[in-house]
Amino acid sequence: MGTVDPRRQGRDAYERLAWREAYEGLSAADRQAPLMADDLDRLARAAYLIGATDVATGTWERAHHAFLDRGEVAGAVRCAFWIGLTLLLRGEHARGGGWLTRAQHILEDAALCCVERGYLRVPAALRALNGGDAEAAKRSFVEITEIADLFDDTDLRALGSLGRGQSLMAQGRAAQGVELLDETMVAVTTGEVSPITAGIVYCAVILACRGIYDLRRVQEWTEALSRWCATQQDLQPYRGQCLVHRSEIMQLRGDWADAMDEVCRACEHLSTSHGDPALGMALYQRAELLRLRGEFSQAERYYREAGGRGHSAQPGLALLRLAQGRLDDAAAAIRRTLVETEGLEERPGVLVGSVEIELAAGGVEDAQQAVDELDRIAAGFESPYLRAVAAYARGSVLLAAGAPEAACTALRRAWTAWHGNEAPYEAARVRVELARAYRQVGDRDTAEMELEAAQRVFAELGAAPALEQVRELRGTAGRAAPRSPEGLTPREIEVLRLIATGASNRVIADRLVISDKTVARHVSNIFTKLGVSSRAAATAYAYEHDLV
């Protein structure tokens, strides 16, 4: 039998996109005899794609020197580019910038006209884009694309087209930008672009579409990214961000249990990556789901962890404070965040939180200003999702301002949009506001039907705070407040109502902002006073005595 050649095995696995196998085969070959420059580049790419970024940068460094020893300047510069970009993405700006400067000097000394000149322009173009100079960024990306066309380099062409699309969107020309991103994705989805570049483009396009609230494209490209990830063995980068976006889509569609499963997987996956910024996004998404389910202490933990990872904890943390009854803290946090948030991608979410909190604080004029700005942004983005958000916010403000008829018109428009987009939680929230409006115009029957429909949705989703809000509203709909039976205190009735929703002691503690021990004491007192021995019996009692 012939001896197995690990180098050949590694190369074959690399062509099959089996990154772990390629890494192990080429590493074994490297231990037998130092690899040549081209195989070192393959080993570095395989290491990067299984998440071993330290190994990847070290191996690219070896490849860089090996190319220089062979007099292949272009190959050496390409390796230096990937080292620099990888380090920049990890937040190591000094080292990353050093490698990029080194590459630039090597090219200048060699006076070589090659496609790598285009690659070295990418970081500067990104700095201009992130620094707010979208016009300068667009010019740079146009030049990068021209260099790619000159040398017929599909990877550089994809990066240039991606940057041009992002620059157009940053200039408020969302429709043109999205068209360019769609065109860029054609080369990616047909396999014309190498895996590292393809992953970068996939994630950037999804984030760009998410930033303009184009949820149809977010869903479409997330599904494509998920399929792409599944074709590559042991792929580490990109998969975590894909799981976060999948969780966001599931949440919108009302699949909250699956959404939580996905984001937990994302957190676990991303925790193994050094400095991956997507981890902050995953932690924030986890906190959002927990807040909506009423698990407040756990939600706060993940908001804080997200903040520690560089992702803003707002507006979620301010909305958590509102749900906890800490209105002053919520208002202070959202007002500060509104002043500090300038980007068009982040601002709509903060404005929505501002409307809700300002209305709770009685600041109708401030809420009105936030809605006006939200309307302007929604008009510029041409986003059905954002238009629905803005219609709901406007309806809420009109209702608070004493214009229930006008509020009904705006809210009905919002409900139609959410219902058409299969977003049950958002549609149910609109129903609650519609019920308030119908009551103000004297249509109590329709108001009760809206509340019944909303209550069913919130119960199915496990949206405990929203469910309690509906129950409180229905309790004031022409019914006297229930008497305290069996000597239960008002707090014990609150606990009993939550027991009847199926809430655990921990959830009750979160919801009422009390300790687990205090909840346990209340539960014990309730059982004693009612003469029951189980939560099921207490729940039955609550329903029989109209306490729920």
Automatic annotation (TrEMBL):
The answer to keyword DNA-binding applying to this record is yes
UniProt KW keywords? DNA-binding
- Tell me the InterPro entries matching this sequence: Sig_transdc_resp-reg_C-effctor (IPR016032), TPR-like_helical_dom_sf (IPR011990), Tscrpt_reg_LuxR_C (IPR000792), WalR-like (IPR039420), WH-like_DNA-bd_sf (IPR036388)
Specify the HTH luxR-type domain's residue ranges: 481-546
Name the SUPFAM superfamilies on file.
C-terminal effector domain of the bipartite response regulators, TPR-like
Q: Which Pfam families does this chain map to?
A: GerE
Q: Which domain of life is it from?
A: Bacteria
* UniProt cross-references to SMART domains, sorted A to Z: HTH_LUXR (SM00421)
Q: Extract the PANTHER family matched here.
A: TWO-COMPONENT RESPONSE REGULATOR
Q: What is this protein called?
A: LuxR C-terminal-related transcriptional regulator
Q: Which organism is it from?
A: Streptomonospora arabica
